[in-house]
Amino acid sequence: xxxxxxxxxxxxxxxxxxxxxxxxxxxxxxxxxxxxxxxxxxxxxxxxxxxxxxxxxxxxxxxxxxxxxxxxxxxxxxxxxxxxxxxxxxxxxxxxxxxxxxxxxxxxxxxxxxxxxxxxxxxxxxxxxxxxxxxxxxxxxxxxxxxxxxxxxxxxxxxxxxxxxxxxxxxxxxxxxxxxxxxxxxxxxxxxxxxxxxxxxxxxxxxxxxxxxxxxxxxxxxxxxxxxxxxxxxxxxxxxxxxxxxxxxxxxxxxxxxxxxxxxxxxxxxxxxxxxxxxxxxxxxxxxxxxxxxxxxx
Length: 298
What we know:
By secondary structure, the protein is mainly β. The chain folds into two domains: about 1-120 and about 240-290, no CATH class; about 125-240, no CATH class. Helix content is about 10%, strand content about 40%. The protein contains two helices and 20 strands. The strands form three sheets. Strands 1, 2, 3, 6, 7, 12, 13, 17, 19 and 20 form a ten-stranded mixed beta sheet that branches. A hairpin with a 6-residue loop joins strand 8 (about 100-105) and strand 9. Helix 1 (about 1-15) runs antiparallel to helix 2. The two termini are about 35 Å apart.
């Protein structure tokens, strides 16, 4: 049960703060492997963590890597080195450019060079169609879909500090639904009507993955996102790189195997979470977020 609770908390951190990815104690890897986690975002500050894993039967605590060089390259040219600012935290002042190929190079003494690559995605063009909104439905139209995207909703019942971007005080909605024709049903759980009267869409746990589709007709793809919204709400559209998409989907699938009370045998599932880090483990990926804010007084 402790494993399952830890994994659920970690998943929520990944969704809300993609740069705050921590080591996952769910694969019984040999201790001492270098773990590199870095999710490029559309913010001006990029973060990374470099740690060493420990065997799962010891504890959830990772080991500090005190001496490492973490370099970011764009199209093969260096854009800077991350500066260590905490026990497992590195930062670089840089805003990624859509469509650009990035490489991460990590040098740790007495270890082979660690490398990974990703491409910063362009934003998918998704716009709200707010004139048609009625509780519990927010309406949108998608005009481009060159990359898969993930969507989720955050709510608060008391006033929040920042209307531009989610921050403290918002909570992730666990039951959400959509009628998007390209929604991936891998984490569908029945129908939203079972928990929310007047809902009309399938129910998903926490967030929804939408497959890439291109081209899209000039009229776009209209779709809805339904949940039990609060007074203050964000709907987040997260366009994902190929690596981030595989990483997040495999992470959720792993979480589901840990939280299935009806089939405890799945807790011993040997599938590993996706990693694209060479000579180590972890993830180097990218995502671009669009935030839609709503104030819905009761």
